[in-house]
Design a protein that fits this description.
Number of domains: 2
CATH class of the largest domain: Alpha Beta
Structural class: alpha+beta
Order of helices and strands: EEEEEEEHEEEHH
Distance between the termini: 40 Å
CATH superfamily of the largest domain: Nucleoside Triphosphate Pyrophosphohydrolase
Helix content: 10-25%
Largest sheet: 7 strands, mixed
CATH architecture of the largest domain: Alpha-Beta Complex
Radius of gyration: 19 Å
Number of helices: 3
Low-confidence stretches: none
Number of strands: 10
CATH topology of the largest domain: Nucleoside Triphosphate Pyrophosphohydrolase
Strand content: over 45%
């Protein structure tokens, strides 16, 4: 067990806060623990079925932290500690892709990188999709929406084209959920 002795905020912007805690470990030794604090987010798997064929919608965007353009599922947050998870997921889906979903299924809520960050993420499956107009934030001005078959998506994961851990984990969760639904 680790006990917090003191805490101070060392950085803040509209999206992220960084806290430095003085801690005491169970053996009595003291240390410092850095914690990145972010408000909840949502990741959405937009799944479209046309006959026997299945497609997913991805967002391609520049990710400054790693210096490149990458594809991932739509995801994001509203910089608010308390949100209605489904409302946020629907909003992020509409904002980034223009898609509206007839059905949203909450698959899970998990922690992202809990070794350094306190952010939780709600995982949703979006079905019954209709296209509207995207409403990207200023930071998302260069988004490209891509519709790919499920087979293409899975090959992109295997080929390291999709490297976003949240997108890959969300897809794995969806596949397990789908198998259990089929067995029920």
């Amino acid at each position: 067990m680790i006990r917090k002795i003191s805490s101070r905020e060392v950085y803040r912007n509209p999206w992220t806060r960084v806290r430095e805690d003085v801690i005491e470990r169970s053996n009595g030794e003291r240390g410092i623990y850095g914690v990145v604090v972010k408000d909840p987010s949502a990741i959405i798997i937009p799944l479209e079925k046309i006959g026997e064929n299945e497609f997913v919608y991805l967002i391609e965007q520049f990710r400054y932290t790693v210096g490149g353009r990458f594809c991932e599922f739509p995801q994001g947050g509203w910089e608010m500690a308390e949100v209605d998870a489904e409302e946020m997921a629907r909003g992020e889906l509409r904002e980034e892709t223009g898609l509206r979903a007839e059905r949203m299924t909450h698959l899970s809520t998990w922690q992202i990188a809990y070794g350094v960050m306190s952010q939780k993420q709600h995982v949703f499956l979006a079905e019954g999709l209709t296209m509207g107009t995207a409403e990207p934030d200023a930071e998302e001005h260069d988004l490209i929406v891509r519709r790919v078959s499920v087979g293409e998506f899975e090959q992109m994961v295997l080929d390291n084209v999709i490297v976003d851990s949240c997108s890959i984990a969300a897809w794995g969760l969806y596949r397990m959920w789908r198998e259990r639904q089929a067995a029920a």
